[in-house]
Amino acid sequence: MTVLVTGADGYVGWPTALRLARRLDERVVGVDNLARRDWVEDVGSVSAVPVDDPETRYAAEPNLSFVYADLADRDEVQQLLDVHEPHTVVHAAAQPSAPYSQINGERALYTQRNNLSMNVNLLHGLKDAGLDDTHFIETTTTGVYGAPEFPIPEGGATMENQGERDDVPFPAMGGSWYHVTKSFDNANARLANTQWDQPVSDLRTAIVYGTETDETEELGLPTRFDFDYYFGTVVNRFCAQAVAGYPLTVYGKGEQRKPMVGLRDTVESIATLVEDGHDGEGVDVYNQVTRPVAIVELAETIQEVGEEFDLDVEITHVENPREEDEEHQMEMENERFEELVGEPQSLEAGVRDVLTTLTRHRDRITAREDRFLPEVLLD
Ligand SMILES: NC(=O)c1ccc[n+]([C@@H]2O[C@H](COP(=O)([O-])OP(=O)(O)OC[C@H]3O[C@@H](n4cnc5c(N)ncnc54)[C@H](O)[C@@H]3O)[C@@H](O)[C@H]2O)c1
Questions:
Q1: How many Å lie between the centroid of ligand 1 and the Cα of residue 221?
Q2: Measuring CA to CA, how many Å separate 304 from each of 10, 183, 345?
Q3: Residues 21 and 63 sit within 8 Å (Cβ to Cβ)
Q4: Is the pLDDT of residue 378 over 70?
Q5: What is the mean pLDDT of the chain?
Q6: Is 178 among the residues known to form the active site?
Q7: SS3 53
Q8: Atom of ligand 1 at shortest distance to CA of 34?
Q9: Which terminal CB of the chain, N or C, has fewer other CB atoms within 10 Å?
Q10: Following CA atoms 117, 71, 30, 335 in sequence, which dihedral angle do they give, to the nearest 10 degrees?
Q11: pTM over cut 0.85
């Protein structure tokens, strides 16, 4: 009995593989091509928290093992699935940065080829390996919904035209070349479900923040933590700015609400879903989100919690490098997700976690503080 975790060297993938190895009495195989380490180096940054190599990480638990493989390569994927015959695949591998995918056409194409190839290779690979009962759990993104004016459902939408109504999958509203790959992933996984009944769970992941989980803390094997413009998501980047004594750079008015979720709840929801399994009917969609938070509320929360760490946090507004409605009041349903995690961590507690870790690595952050903003805003 095996669970396969893709993207297992990544921010979410590593703590997820570790929790599964601790919780389940079966083999957990982590797969990654370590591309994220190269991308961050390419944009001139580092993980604020030094991370061990996969060999050290994966020696931590007897039922954990690591395979270096490029999942965009069809043969490598087929071999992995034929050899390990997983009953569940947690697909957390991706080029996950919207700004990186927006740099130019070459990065847009790389992102789309990489992400789409992995998804199709895994789905067809499962079919060809005779593993059409394997539970395919993919982490997509809440970004597939865009920013509509109505409360975002947990899954599809109801459309009305010429007096008739029907339930449809949500339209692909992603706002970057990266986000659109996740809409394709939703559609492809749905195809695998309709064509050969592959059990699929689609976790639409919000902006994740946090540094530790119980297992990474206990073993002293942390996950990576990026704070640069391309790979540092907003909560993590703001916390790094606070620790470096750099003003929190709110883009534009910052009144828009963005969906957020703590790393601890992200990992716990995936582990619960692996344990619970799939009921065999259709595609299950979960909005992996605690709540939408306005960017200014986030900055003020970091300012307040920062006082506990003697941080004098300043907030500044800079020109918005993104095309977005700076007042959008997003609402998002998440009942199914809440059932997976129970009581979620509060934003304040998550920020406290992050600041506790980052204050130990202040020098690594200040040495790269020119990476907080895109070049265009630094001129
Ligand atoms: N972190 C977030 O805020 C966030 C938000 C929304 C969605 N997500 C989604 O959650 C998942 C995990 O994201 P993350 O933050 O851990 O990203 P990450 O970059 O830290 O992890 C992804 C991992 O996938 C690996 N990978 C990429 N291409 C590969 C390939 N061709 N073959 C093998 N491995 C490959 C990378 O090396 C990396 O270690 C992704 O699907 C991402 O799109 C994350």
A1: 18
A2: 30, 37, 17
A3: yes
A4: no
A5: 95
A6: yes
A7: coil
A8: 37
A9: C
A10: 0
A11: yes
In the structure, which protein residues have their CB atom closer than 6 angstroms to any atom of ligand 1? 7, 9-13, 32-36, 70-72, 92-96, 114, 118, 139, 141, 205, 207-208, 233
CA of 93 to the centre of ligand 1 (A): 4
Return the CATH number of 2-372, one of 1.20.120.140, 3.30.465.10, 3.30.300.30, 3.40.50.720. 3.40.50.720
Inter-CA distances, 14 with 7, 90, 186, 291, Å: 8, 12, 23, 24
Query: Do the bridges between strand 200-205 and strand 135-139 make them parallel or antiparallel, or are there none, so unpaired?
Result: parallel
Query: Domain residue spans in the chain?
Result: 2-372
User: How, if at all, do strands 207-209 and 157-161 pair?
Assistant: unpaired
Segment 185-222, tens digit of pLDDT: 999 999 999 999 999 999 999 999 999 999 999 999 99
Please give the pLDDT value at position 190: 96
pLDDT tens readout for residues 51-89: 999 999 999 999 999 999 999 999 999 999 999 999 999
**CA 282 to ligand 1 centroid distance, Å:** 25
pLDDT category of residue 374 using cuts at 50, 70 and 90? confident
**How many A from CA of 307 to the centre of ligand 1?**
33
- pLDDT digit string, tens, across residues 183-194: 999 999 999 999
Handedness of CA 72, 204, 202, 62 (dihedral sign): positive
Q: Give the active site residue among 139, 141, 142, 216.
A: 141
